[in-house]
Design goal:
This protein is mainly alpha-helical. About 75% of the residues lie in helices and about 0% in strands. Strands 1-2 form a two-stranded antiparallel sheet.
C-alpha cells in the first residue's frame, strides 16, 4: 500500500469517526436540554465534553478536508494564469499549509506529552474531562494534514497521472 492510498483510507476513517462522534454529541446535548427543562436534572459535564469534542472533531476531519480539496481556496485569479504559474502557486500554497501544521506539531508536542504524563484535566465540579485526548488528536490530525498537503503537492504539482499516460504501454519493460 502506497502513501497516497494509506492517507486516503486513514483520512476517510477519521472523518467517519468524527461524524459518529458529532452524532453522539447531539444526543448528549439533547439529553442535557431535556434533563434541564423537564426534570430539572442536567447532565453534568456536558459543556466540558462538548468543548473538548469540538476540537477533536475538527482535527479528525482536517486531513479529509484537505485531501478532498474542501479547504478554503480562492482560485478565481489563479485559474486564468499559465499552467506553470499555477503549479508554482499550488506548490507554494501546499508548502504553507504543510508548514502551518508542522508548526502546530512542533509547538504542541511537549504540552501533549506533559498533559498525558501529568494527567491534566479540564473542568471543575461534577465531571473533569482529561485534556490529553484533545491534545493528541490535534497532533495526529495535524500530522495527517501535513501528509495530505504533501500528497496534494505531489499530485497537483508533478501530475503523475500525466506521466503515466505518456508512457507507451507497448514499450518493452512496461
Amino acid at each position: 500500500m502506497n502513501l497516497i492510498t494509506f492517507s486516503d483510507r486513514v483520512s476517510k476513517f477519521l472523518m467517519v469517526l468524527a461524524a459518529v462522534w458529532a452524532f453522539a454529541l447531539v444526543f448528549l446535548i439533547l439529553g442535557d436540554i431535556i434533563g434541564r427543562g423537564v426534570f430539572s436534572r442536567p447532565i453534568y459535564g456536558t459543556v466540558e465534553m462538548v468543548a473538548a469534542s469540538v476540537v477533536i472533531i475538527v482535527f479528525l476531519q482536517a486531513g479529509y478536508a484537505i485531501r478532498s480539496r474542501s479547504m478554503l481556496r480562492a482560485d478565481f485569479l489563479v485559474t486564468h494564469l499559465p499552467d506553470v504559474v499555477q503549479r508554482i502557486l499550488l506548490a507554494f500554497g501546499y508548502l504553507l499549509g504543510a508548514a502551518f501544521f508542522l508548526m502546530i506539531i512542533t509547538g504542541g508536542w511537549e504540552e501533549s506529552i506533559r498533559s498525558f504524563v501529568d494527567g491534566e484535566f479540564e473542568g471543575e465540579g461534577a465531571l473533569r474531562v482529561p485534556s490529553w485526548p484533545a491534545r493528541w488528536t490535534v497532533l495526529i490530525g495535524s500530522a495527517l494534514a501535513l501528509i495530505n498537503y504533501c500528497v496534494l503537492a505531489y499530485l497537483d504539482v508533478f501530475k503523475p497521472e500525466l506521466l503515466d499516460s505518456e508512457v507507451d504501454p507497448d514499450a518493452p519493460g512496461v
